[in-house]
Amino acid sequence: MQNDERLSRLISNIYDAALDSTLWASVLEQIAGFVGGPAASLYSKDVVIKSANVAYQFGLDPRYVQLYLERYARFDPTGAAHLFAEIEEPVATADVMPYDEFLDTRFYREWAKPQGLVDTVNTVLEKSLTSLSCLIVFRHERNGLVDDETRRRMRLIAPHVRRAALIGKVIDLKRAQAETFADALDGISAGMYLVDAIGRVVHANITGHVMLNSANLLSIAGGRLIAADPQADQALAESFTAVGHGEPTVGTKGIAVALTARNGRRYVAHVLPLTAGARRRAGASYAAAAALFVHEAALETPSSLEVIAKTYKLTPTELRVLLAIVEVGGVPEVADALGIAETTVKTHLGRLYGKTDTHRQADLVKLVAGFANPLLG
């Protein structure tokens, strides 16, 4: 009965924090005590650029919080793996990687161990292909590793924390008079155009207008968007027509067209039909049939981690090694960055070659570049 009353009070306080964000630190203290740990945080993370943001936290030394944000977020071996977790499902370190391997990482040796932290239990509240927001409760040496009771308690409160966080987000957006749809599009670094079935531009973001003004890659002629490369221009026109007629071969994933600018630089155009769900509703009022995203072809364009991992059935550790190979370089550098032995990197590298049917590190870099998302980078 006492535990039921404690849980009831905690849930009530969680929803109070949705209405008054100043209460979150106190609520996180209660959550940490209920789940079983000295500290808890609500945080978000972008696993592509390896940045993190702590919205609210209790129990951690502020110096270590700052160290995590500035230095150790990129070494966190569990970050990318949480993209594959189910919403509201508790995830401990051992669910992501062998615990002995975790103890060998630079993240544990330099950040967790000095604080006496031995484990965490995370639950994902919201996620996209490249980012997530989570509730995390830290386990100290005196608490031991995450066990079944820890998971049970996390499951009891996770749905309420998620709902409260979403309610708070809506309230914050209302208070801030959320940015307009056009402002959001202007924040995309790729050139973006909403076009009708014959290629007339209904709307373009700032980057799109810059491209048109230079006339090096795209321009407007006869009221229609045209490409400098005649073959690419024909391919774009056919894509717009196919999208406008709703041809089933286009599907909902769209069409990719290679473009070459007058100066010889190469670009990729993604024609995305406005034919599904929210896309259709967004385009209806503008008489737009398709959204066109144009970005320069470059290896450093961020990639869809979830798609890569699922396509090649990669484990979280294999995905970490793959991304490190792309970003850091050779085996010694990757071993140092991830805090693991070179032999371990070589073992995972061999498995990556087998799963992706590649033979060189350069091939892995090209493979990752092939999954580039035009909305990022």
Q: Please give the count of helices.
A: 16
CATH class of the largest domain: Alpha Beta
How many DSSP-defined strands? Answer: 12
Kindly, what is the distance between the CA atoms of the first and last residues, rounded to a whole number of angstroms?
53 Å
Helix content: 40-55%
Shape descriptor reads: globular
**CATH homologous superfamily heading of the largest domain:** GAF domain
The structural class is alpha+beta
Largest sheet, strands/sense/barrel: 5 strands, antiparallel
What does this structure look like?
The chain is of the alpha+beta class and 377 residues long. Helices cover 47% and strands 21% of the residues. The protein folds into three domains: 175 residues, 2-Layer Sandwich (Beta-Lactamase); 116 residues, Beta-Lactamase (2-Layer Sandwich); 65 residues, Winged helix-like DNA-binding domain superfamily/Winged helix DNA-binding domain (Arc Repressor Mutant, subunit A, Orthogonal Bundle), CATH 1.10.10. It is built from 16 helices and twelve strands. The strands form three sheets. The protein has a five-stranded antiparallel β-sheet, with helices on both faces. Strands 7-6-12-11-10 form a five-stranded antiparallel β-sheet. Strands 8-9 form a two-stranded antiparallel sheet. It is globular and about 70 Å long. The C terminus is likely disordered.
